[in-house]
Specification:
210 residues, 3-stranded antiparallel β-sheet, 37% strand
């Protein structure tokens, strides 16, 4: 079946995208507002885009009235945020921070999430996260009123020592041990980053079987 995106409503487009583009990593995003209140929310319109400079992208959706949610509003005002990747042990806490709390509520306090200071930006890091990134706004793109794409430059990255090692003098990152989770189809559906397989990348010219 062909879906002509121009003829669909935003809700219909959203349904098609989130039920097919899977799994999606989760950016557990922390911002700090003008009153010093930390806001925390998970976003699955998220990925890395570049290494020079190191850029991540956040797709932020509007609130029911069409305006900015807290994350977008604070990023516009401060230009700073942190992103934590979500380990399976933090799944319930992450889910609680997705609650539609009133503006000015600290989801970190609500979910009793421990934090630690960042080194280069004001918003704190989620202490239990396997990986965290300190980010500054690189560019804001507003494709439609209330929809905001944030391109953030990663100015510092934190990986827990338990997931790092050395092999032949090279840094190795034990990604499977992080037990990361991602979003998949439907409402409230998640996937574990444990069921993987390996294929060797091909070189030119390709090998023949004959």
């Amino acid at each position: 079946m062909l879906f002509d995106m121009e003829s669909l409503s935003p809700a219909e487009r959203y349904k098609l995208l989130v039920n097919t583009v899977t799994p999606r990593p989760i950016a557990w995003t922390v911002t700090l507002d003008e009153n010093g209140t930390a806001n925390c929310a998970p976003h699955s319109f998220f990925n890395v885009l570049s290494n020079a400079p190191p850029l991540v992208a956040l797709g932020l959706m509007p609130n029911p009235s069409g305006g900015d949610k807290d994350t977008a509003r604070i990023i516009r005002a401060t230009g700073e945020f942190t992103i934590a990747l979500v380990g399976e042990a933090d799944a319930e806490a992450m889910n609680l921070t997705a609650i539609n709390a009133p503006a000015g509520t600290s989801e970190l306090d609500l979910a009793e999430i421990a934090t630690c200071p960042s080194g280069k930006v004001a918003p704190p890091l989620i202490a239990s996260a396997p990986v965290s990134m300190e980010c500054r706004t690189w560019q804001l793109i507003e494709p439609a009123p209330g929809n905001l794409i944030v391109l953030g430059e990663v100015v510092a990255m934190h990986i827990k020592d338990a997931f790092l090692g050395r092999e032949g003098g090279k840094l190795r990152i034990d990604n499977p041990a992080m037990r990361l989770i991602g979003r998949t189809h439907g409402t409230g559906s998640y996937v574990r980053n444990g069921d993987s397989f390996h294929m060797k990348r091909k070189a030119w010219p390709p090998e023949t079987t004959s």
